[in-house]
Amino acid sequence: MQYDYLIVGAGFAGCILAERLSSQLDKKILLIDKRDHIGGNAYDSINESGIRIHHYGPHLFHTNDEQIIRYLSQFTDWHPYEHRVLAFVNGKLVPMPINRNTVNQLLKYQYQTDEEVQGFYDRAKEEVKIINNSEDVVVSKVGRELYNLLYKGYTTKHWGIDPSQLAPSVCARLPVRTNTDERYFDDRYQLMPLFGYSAMFDSMTSHKNITVSLDTDYHQIPQGAFNRLIFTGPIDEYFGFLHGILPYRSLRFEFETHSKEIYQQVAQINYPNDYDYTRITEFKHITGQNNSKTTVAKEYSLTTGDPFYPIPNDNNTIIYNRYKNEAQKLSSVHFVGRLATYRYYNMDQVVAQALKTFQDIVNRL
User: Fold this and answer.
1) Pairing relation of β-strands 294-302 and 189-193?
2) For 34-55, how does the pLDDT look when each residue is reduced to its tens digit (9 = 90+)?
3) Each residue of 99-136: pLDDT tens digit?
4) What does the domain layout of the chain look like in residue ranges?
5) What is the 3-state secondary structure (H, E, C) of 46-111?
6) Global pTM?
7) For 3-81+192-246+309-364, which CATH class?
């Protein structure tokens, strides 16, 4: 069969573009993935104990964009969920992101108001004239002591390099609060697909014009089998590493099922300064399931393995821009998603990018 589009990668970006092109433009789509499932890193399933787990770490959907929720709601119902995280520091479990309770519990203050906590931050913070990196972001807001206790170890363990070598955007993602709000995210919409991400993606790719081929490498598809290409894999891989390798952090997970209803008091506990793993996630908090057992995942950061996180710093941006220049020369190829644009995107940002790419295609037609 001659396909209008070959889409490489069946994660958020690939599935959304397959759905839009098939349902709105009646295009014939071949959607491939080298893994044996769709959904990319958001893939989830029910394990042998009946617990829905996220195979590639917790994926928590949050956004302020009502249009994104409206679009995805065509393919799933929702389970409201507000994520909460504790950090294990000096033998205590304290809230992250930093708030009034974090400051009081860690540093033994008794602040009662937002103004008191802001006053503490103002006294503790360091003057940084130009914010060049993630260390600068934190110490300029809350000072060196909280940075060392809560950020430096976790960030170094997760990314494999010191925060001073990472772009400001990495640590700037987390708010710094003066109140007692213990939610991880501030977004208006904080929801989980009711029956999981995999069910949502199955619904999204059910159109008769979409052919899904798993365990399939891009190079297996003859060039003459499709007219246009949408590539959501690593952009350096597409160009044969012409300008060098773009580095990623990878992850390894150790899943444990325990014969108890609850393993820990919140879904996620971070370990910035203790143990080799960065965090432990308990999935039942996220899915809202009832089960006499529970499954947790211990998460380890790796230098090699499947690409999870682009590493944002100046040198890697220079390398990516060389690939971006190559991509702009190709009129029949679209590069979409975290790996193809080497950006540390949240899921809603990938959805927005995919929908914008579809609109660009429509405008071009």
Assistant:
1) unpaired
2) 999 999 999 999 999 999 999 9
3) 999 999 999 999 999 999 999 999 999 999 999 999 99
4) 3-81+192-246+309-364, 100-172
5) ECCCCCEEECCCCCCEEECCHHHHHHHCCCCCEEECCCEEEEEECCEEEEECCCHHHHHHHHCCCC
6) 0.95
7) alpha beta
